[in-house]
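Supplementary Data S3. Sequence and structure tokens for construct A.
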Amino acid sequence: MAYIKLDSSKLSKFVHENELAEMQAMVNAADDQLRNGNGAGSEYRDWLELPTKYDQDEFARIQKAADKIRSDSKYLITIGIGGSYLGAQMAIDVLHNNFYTRNSDETQVIFAGNSLSSSYLSELLDLVGDDDFSINVISKSGTTTEPAIAFRVFKEKLMQKVW
């Protein structure tokens, strides 16, 4: 397994060299506990194996759904609040630089359901207009007010479009 290496050459303005040396023992102990599963929370280490061990059938289903959304939709309305949607937002942010401008033929991911702003939903409905869109609801309970309202609004719009 490859290890992460720290290039400390740029830290000298912020951290004294002796401080790094003093922290090394704690870093080694934390690394040992994480890798060997002998520390607090060791039952939650499954993420360490994600790059190599994952449900490949589920991943194939996700890829197929993503391909369909990209081919069928101008917009992907991702509905959620707090931690439910922040993973999706983070993934988009990490994959693009701060000044990314999407190509006009790419599906645009837009977030909704993270506030009770009626003007935001109204403006989003205007933006989507008659274009094709998909909905992705990310919710642990399905009962949080803000996502529930946004889902009902876009479900209704989708039903009007289809029927």
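Construct B, processed identically:
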Amino acid sequence: MLGSGTSAGVPRVGNDWGACDPDDPRNRRTRVSIIVEGADGARLLVDTSTDLRQQLLANEIDRIDAVFWTHDHADHCHGIDDLRALRYGRSGPLPGFASDETVRRLRQRFGYIFSGQYGYPTIVSVDTLDRLRMFAGIRIDTCQMPHGPIESTAYRFDQDGKSIGYATDFSEICDGIVDLFWDIDILVVDCLRREPHPTHANLAMALQLGERCRAHKIVLTHLDKSLDYRSLSDEVPDNVLVGYDGMVLDA
């Protein structure tokens, strides 16, 4: 888990920690992003958060094999320029994947990333998820989730009988999400705060999704300043973990 925070991070600008204990390093949250690593070492990056450079340095990651986007909101894609350093030494651009609409919006906003410019090479060769079923020996399944007025992509990664799901930025539990994550080993799930929110899952919705799809382990992410790591850890069931930056999970 590269980042576990909401769009403003924790602390917010102004050194605003909210209810979070500033002395607990697990409360210092950069914007959400994860790396999924396969059995043979293949690394799949999900989202290019605005804190991507810092996250890659903190986790000593200097190589990825592909990048996937959930949607085009700033906290999930505006670190895209930091992929330039991961392009160095490669014979071609990084493979990238997203939904049709997200691909369209990313191309519109970051054209130089996908087509090169002024003699600089193409950084990412982007494609839609329509025909993707496997990458580097990892099976990849997706569905679209309601995220307020837009949609966000949920991902499921399977290899060697082990499974990890990623569902960030959703506001409603639909049947497609439950089907995608059915009987999953680890589910990393959106949990903005305790109170309901118009575009994000709150704590109750995050736990409900885990229960409905019979997830073996639930990991909460996209956490805001109202959710202190220790207090929330004491509150949730035994199969639920509170995510934090740098957390490593083995399926």
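Residues 100-109 form the longest helix (10 residues). The two ends are 13 Å apart (CA to CA).
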